[in-house]
TrEMBL record, chains A, B:
Keyword RNA-binding set for record: no
Leading EC class: isomerase
Known EC number: 5.4.99.12
Catalytic activity: uridine(38/39/40) in tRNA = pseudouridine(38/39/40) in tRNA
Function: Formation of pseudouridine at positions 38, 39 and 40 in the anticodon stem and loop of transfer RNAs.
Active site: 47
Residues involved in substrate binding: 105
UniProt-recorded name of the protein: tRNA pseudouridine synthase A
Gene Ontology molecular function: RNA binding; tRNA pseudouridine(38-40) synthase activity
Amino acid sequence: MVVSYDGTAYCGFQIQPRDHTVQQELERAIYVLTGERVKVISSGRTDAGVHAKAQVINFLTECIIPIDRWCFAVNTRLPRDIVVHKASEAPLNFHSRHHAKRKTYRYTIQRSKIPDVFYRHTRFHHPTRLDLSEMQNGLSHLVGEHDFSAFCSARTPVGSHVRTIYEATMEFIAEPSSGDGQAGVIHIYITGNGFLYNMVRIIVGTLLQIGQGKRSGVEMNQILLSGDRNKAGPTAMAHGLTLWEVSY
Amino acid sequence: MVVSYDGTAYCGFQIQPRDHTVQQELERAIYVLTGERVKVISSGRTDAGVHAKAQVINFLTECIIPIDRWCFAVNTRLPRDIVVHKASEAPLNFHSRHHAKRKTYRYTIQRSKIPDVFYRHTRFHHPTRLDLSEMQNGLSHLVGEHDFSAFCSARTPVGSHVRTIYEATMEFIAEPSSGDGQAGVIHIYITGNGFLYNMVRIIVGTLLQIGQGKRSGVEMNQILLSGDRNKAGPTAMAHGLTLWEVSY
């Protein structure tokens, strides 16, 4: 199933003993519908406060509800901040994480003096000026196959830190009423074959330092080569991040 | 001050004995800032669940905080779903309701099979087809000076029901991935010199019946002439409505 959720109220995707998670709500809704205790597998966990436009999940059921009825049937049993967009039957060996070929994340920054009340849960508010072309420069160094050790949290499990970034783009939509043309919304899209723990948020935290003039765009390359988490910027706030797309 | 708010968590703008309201939060924030118990006057109350992009309020204070500091000072004392965008000094006789010349409301409909989780509090979800050109036709009959008795709640205080609608427009933004071009977002903007209780929501409720093919667009004119609330459609859900702009 392809699922979107507003992560604001959740302690992330994956079930944890005492916390309210998206996985828990999905498994509960499927249980109410089918009477079966299934285990939902996702294309990857998302952190507390992180959203998904199109998370992909799979599970095994013996339920005989026709596939074209699933979407509606599950949605009526889910809270309003989780919505199933699509349901389809998959081969028995399908695994939404292992078989994912490309994933895209979007990080959104509200660049304006005053925050926008309607996007307080989905955009990171940045009140001061940002040098967009220098950020764009920084972003360009990420494309390709690299060891992303400098951009992963210490909590990342041991294993290869080599990932391939296929695309890293930035879009700026200016606020029509903005005086200096500096106010607006910045969307950063990063597509890769996989992501390490906190990788997108550390990249964005570093890009924000570049935008603020604390670092230059080319430093992104030096940080990458260093492989040192301490050289990169802070982990950007979770609520600006959305799992945008997963391809198989 | 020009104020925007997400009305989801509030029982409307105006203070009521036992309910949580936007006015209460504004007066509390101003009290915390100044120590003064002011009475906030708005350009008009909004109902429970209705939002504002640019509500205008006024109040009387003896506080000596410079006017360019007010915005930031009040915002740090407000909950995150209410944000002050602008503060300015006004003549002593200024009254944000009495002196309002034009008000614009926007009503937003999410026209798609599956609701959009990120706009569940700000768009009315309509899963089935709507005839947009017939709705457009219906909307056009509202422009001008009319007695809007057919489009006001029985709870409207006694008095003239004549109002002037200056503009009534509809905008459709198609969903790029929509197969039949029918999915997307519909914004309805209505600008007038004033609005009766529930007027915009009853207009939209009637427009939805027109869009669904239950009535034709020209019936809007007949309903208007009848002056009979029972001839019009139901009151549309509050959460799609936003007080968009107030001019003086």
